[in-house]
Amino acid sequence: MRFPVVHLRFLPASGMAIFPFVLIKYPELKQDRQIINHELIHLRQQLELLILPFFLLYLINYLVNLIKYRSHHQAYRNIVFEREAYTHDSNYSYLRSRRFFAWIAYL
Length: 107
Fold this sequence. Notes:
The chain has 107 residues and is mainly alpha-helical. It contains 5 helices and 3 strands.
């Protein structure tokens, strides 16, 4: 399945997924397979949670982690959705074999 990759120079991160788009900060990142794969993993997570619940769970997980770690970076890296995406973003065949709700293993 193909998703549009959109360049937005004001993006607060290098990449972001908001269904059905992969957003990137710099045009050259369209060629970065690892970042695109990372964001495609997030799109799959969003689809299986019917999009809005994904963002709600993402925010709640981030806030709980922020209290726990008292560090934005650690809170972000320990969001269950990010843990799955960072673990598999260099495995370009991951989405072909990924199980439904695979992110639960990262709770």
